[in-house]
Amino acid sequence: EVGIGSGIVAETLQRSWPTLQIDGVDTSEAMLRIARTRLPGSHLRVGSATDLPQPAHSYDVIVVAHVLRYIPPEHAGAVVAQLDRVARQQARVYVSDLALPTFRLAAFPGVQRIERGILGIWSDRPALIEAMSRRGFTLTRTQHPIASFLLTFDRR
Q1: Three-state SS letters, 7-67
Q2: How many angstroms separate the CA atoms of 52 and 85, rounded?
Q3: Of 8, 61, 68, 113, which is least packed with CB atoms within 10 Å of its CB?
Q4: Residue 82 dihedral angles phi and psi, to the nearest 5°
Q5: pTM summary value
Q6: Given a cut of 80, is residue 148 above it in pLDDT?
């Protein structure tokens, strides 16, 4: 999992698939300490989505959950390139995050609208889909739970 944080998503997945081998990366050693208590025996290390420490073609499944909002738009290409690099030929990539590109704060006087939103370039899902497509991934499923999105990409 890219941006494993405290390990909540990986722990949930491991409950459903007990034999699942978890390998996670996060920029925060403090978050990884928490994740290690949740995921004993997992391989967790400090790293960045723009420069993943894993070897090329290492993973059949990659999860990027609630991380994209922290990636500056100028690093978007590097993140997609890293996902491509570590994915095996028949890999699946799950990408999820909040889906709130703009919102109103009507309850606060003087605040009309926040134009930039909270996800920057990542709120533009067509751009993300196109970037993944250029790297050989096909969008195979789109889900839109309340205020979020989940995109499933499969390698062609």
Answers
A1: CHHHHHHHHHCCCCCCEEEECCHHHHHHHHHHCCCCEEEECECCECCCCCCCEEEEEEECC
A2: 9
A3: 113
A4: -70, -40
A5: 0.82
A6: no
Q: How far apart are CA 66 and CA 61, in angstroms?
A: 16
The pair of three-digit structure tokens given for residue 140, joined into one six-digit string: 């195979």
The CA distance from 22 to 35, in Å, is 11
Half-sphere exposure of 40 (CA within 13 A, CB side): 1
> What are 57-116's pLDDT values in tens digits?
999 999 999 888 788 778 888 999 999 999 999 999 999 887 654 444 444 444 443 333
Under DSSP, the state recorded for 2 is: B
Q: What is the dihedral of CA 26, 29, 33, 39, to 10 degrees?
A: 20
Distance CA 86, CA 52 (A): 8
Ramachandran category for residue 91: left, alpha or beta (phi over 0 → left; psi -120 to 50 → alpha): beta
H/E stretch holding 148: strand 148-155
CA atoms of 22 and 7, how far apart (whole Å) = 10
**pLDDT band, very low/low/confident/very high, at 128 (cuts 50, 70, 90):** confident
Radius of gyration of the chain measured on its C-alpha atoms: 16
